[in-house]
Specification:
Elements (H helix, E strand, L loop, with lengths): L1 H20 L5 H18 L1 H15 L5 H14 L5 H15 L5 H16 L5 H14 L5 H11 L3
Helix pairs in contact: 1-2, 1-3, 2-3, 2-4, 3-5, 4-6, 5-6, 5-7, 6-7, 6-8, 7-8
Length: about 160
């Protein structure tokens, strides 16, 4: 549908719906919306994403609802392989680093997974990987077993 209606119509009519789905009360809808963001980037390109999509997604990362913070991390995980270094270092990495210190263990383990995906991104450079490794290192000692697991797994990509 995005290809058929074009960028301008999509931005005006459909983009708000796609972003609203990230905050839906049903997990399956939030999950599908996060995966859909990757498809939108594949359709419209990274230039469109950097101006129309990613800034809006990043603002949702400060939600007081931990489920919303988790789904934003999931969306970032999904799009990590497609984004450029300026988007990683300027938008996604700062948010993932911030959320790696979240008080909710599930947010921290999703942040660890996302940091691993950002480290694996073809656009990641040595400085980004060093920042990621520095954030993951304390998570290896987290009280939550899932956080420890994903931190150790993601450190392997740095």
């Amino acid at each position: 549908l995005a290809k058929q209606v074009g960028e301008a119509v999509f931005d005006e009519k459909l983009a708000p719906l796609c972003l609203d789905w990230l905050s839906d009360c049903v997990y399956a809808i939030r999950d599908a919306a996060a995966v859909n963001l990757r498809k939108l980037i594949e359709t419209f390109g990274i230039g469109w994403a950097s101006k129309s999509l990613i800034p809006k997604v990043v603002t949702l990362g400060s939600s007081p609802n931990y489920l919303h913070r988790m789904i934003i991390l999931h969306a970032m995980y999904s799009m990590a392989a497609l984004v450029s270094l300026p988007i990683i270092t300027g938008k996604l990495l700062p948010l993932a680093l911030q959320l790696s210190k979240d008080k909710v263990p599930n947010v921290r383990f999703q942040a660890a997974k996302t940091l691993g995906a950002l480290a694996q991104s073809p656009a990641s450079d040595a400085a980004a990987k060093a920042s990621i490794a520095a954030a993951l290192t304390p998570l290896k000692e987290d009280v939550d077993l899932d956080v420890k697991f994903y931190a150790n797994e993601s450190l392997g990509f740095c």
